[in-house]
Amino acid sequence: MTNFKECINLSEDIVTTLDGKELILKGLHNYYGPLTMQLLPFGGIQGVNGGNLIIHVKNGYICPREIVYDGKKYTPKDFCSLPLELVNRVLPD
Prior knowledge:
The chain is mainly beta. It contains one helix and eight strands; from the N terminus they run ββββββββα. Strands 1-2-7-8 form a four-stranded antiparallel β-sheet. The protein has a four-stranded antiparallel β-sheet with strand order 3-6-5-4, with no helix packed on it.
């Protein structure tokens, strides 16, 4: 499991869970676009703007290029369209 209290290495996958199912975020990159105004703890899903899954981490905001959820691969846009109510949720360490 990824420790969100530490700086995230963008060359490594984030491994966590969402609703009790494994969530792997791959191809991480920094995000510099618009954000919502609330400040979430590290590991918080800050937004889903433009089909990006935006996560607040110690070293800023990041997005994945590929997501594996419950063993299925998704693009960020497809994953964000699932009925999971992602915004403002905090991913566990």
